[in-house]
């Protein structure tokens, strides 16, 4: 199990629940700057990369968002109807205080 903070899990959920994760290529998407305190979120984003949960974060662009993709450490293909929209599911994550 990989332990994550509540803030890190919030960022993971933002990657999971966006229109790009429903394309069937894995959990990849963006962190919207307008919806996050980026001074705090950038630290959690760096931690997710260090833990091997996110491959990398793309350079921030003019669309006011930062793009990332979850690794196989915490996601895997599935046919589970609960995750049918995505074709992938989360795994091995434990949220800690």
List keywords for this structure.
single chain, 97 residues, alpha+beta, Arc Repressor Mutant, subunit A, three-stranded antiparallel β-sheet, two-stranded parallel sheet, 2 helices, globular
Task: Describe the structure in your own words.
There is one protein chain. The protein is an alpha+beta fold and 97 residues long. It has one domain (2-95): Arc Repressor Mutant, subunit A. The chain is built from two helices and seven strands, in the order E-H-E-H-E-E-E-E-E. It has helices spanning 6-16, 38-50; strands spanning 2-4, 28-32, 54-57, 65-70, 75-77, 88-90, 93-95. It has a three-stranded antiparallel β-sheet, with helices on one face. It has a two-stranded parallel sheet with strand order 1-7. A hairpin with a 7-residue loop joins strand 3 (54-57) and strand 4. The longest helix is centred in the middle third of the chain and has 13 residues, at 38-50. The radius of gyration is 13 Å and the shape is globular. The two termini are 15 Å apart.
The count of strands amounts to 7
Side by side, the strands of the main sheet go: 2-4-3
Low-confidence stretches: none
Shape: globular
Number of helices: 2
Question: What is the ordering of alpha helices and beta strands?
Answer: EHEHEEEEE
Query: How many domain modules?
Result: 1
Give the N-terminus to C-terminus distance in angstroms: 15 Å
The computed structural class is alpha+beta
């Amino acid at each position: 199990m990989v332990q994550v903070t509540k803030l890190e899990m919030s960022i993971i959920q933002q990657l999971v629940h966006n229109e790009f994760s429903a394309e069937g290529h894995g959990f990849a998407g963006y962190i919207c700057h307008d919806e996050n305190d980026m001074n705090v979120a950038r630290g959690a984003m760096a931690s997710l990369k260090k833990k091997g949960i996110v491959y990398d974060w793309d350079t921030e662009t003019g669309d006011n968002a930062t793009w990332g993709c979850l690794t196989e450490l915490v996601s895997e293909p599935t046919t589970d109807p609960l995750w049918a929209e995505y074709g992938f599911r989360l795994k091995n994550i434990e949220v800690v205080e």
